[in-house]
Amino acid sequence: MAVLEKPFIDIDDQIERLVSRGLEINNFDKARRQLIKVTYYDLINGYKDMFLMPKKDRNEEDIFIKGTKLEDIIELYELDRHLRSATLLFMLDIESRFYSSIAYSLSKIYGEKEDDYLSTDNYKEGKIQSHNNKLERENLFDIINKKIRNPNQQPLKYYKRKYKNIPPWILVKDLTFGELVMLYKLSSRDVKTMVVTNILGRSPNEDDYELFSISIKIFNKFRNWAAHGGRMYNYNSSIDFPFNDYHKKVLNITRYEYKSGRGKNDFTSLIIAAMFFLKSDYHEMLEFVVNINFYLKEYKKTHPESYEKVLSELGFSNNYYELIEKEMLHK
Fold this sequence. Notes:
By secondary structure, the protein is mostly helical. Helices cover 62% and strands 1% of the residues. The protein has helices at 11-20, 28-37, 40-47, 70-110, 114-117, 136-149, 156-163, 168-171, 177-186, 189-200, 206-227, 245-250, 255-259, 267-277, 283-302, 304-314, 320-329, and strands at residues 128-129, 134-135. It has a two-stranded antiparallel sheet with strand order 1-2. Helix 3 (40-47) crosses helix 4, helix 11 (206-227) packs across helix 14 and helix 15 (283-302) runs antiparallel to helix 16.
């Protein structure tokens, strides 16, 4: 019979294990309530690393740094929850801009009729996707055609019933951000140019097209990670944002620091991608950065040592807020 590697452990046994590893727990009833509210895996396994003694051997048991309290882990978890909520709200603002620009561009170039703006001749075939050996265009249009032919969401159902047609600005309401990223990727150069111009507020150069494509992929990664409850403060996406003037001139990140990971695919890479994407209007981003700064300052008041570690994981310098604010207010 196979033996489970991670068997079920009773709440009291979980607490006993934590205490045996050096974690200070002063209120066992509170600890029980917390571990029922948030699972051991999400709370302890998710946020313990910052509070552990270094290991000489990877197989050694976790031992907490002397003086570490359960409240320390809980408060890091709460900070991260705030970062996640702020990030998700910010990504929704960015999505709104992207959805609107895609819909406008498709309508402007091809018109509002399904047969026109959804003609496969207007889109590249894309790559073969490994999960079913179909082209990206084929997989995307399988999804879109299903939504068009038999919509099950409003306002698509209303438009299909009343007008026998779903225009671009209605269709995009039922596309996921990932599906919209794919639609943009496969779109013609004319559509891409109009989308990028509308969002950046200027005619794009070749570098802009690349940075724009990478930015929306990064947004999609962070949006999905946040939406599924992922840990934010030390998240690294699988998309690298290329080293550029935003790293150097805005955040003083050197190429050496970038190669070490700062601003490459960490939380700072999300900030830099957003600064590029929202250059024409930083309104939503200013609100996002102010919120992030508020949560970090509150955390610093009670956890100055952990605060420095959190900043490092985020890719932030100690004066990150002043640098970002200066760029946004004096662009």
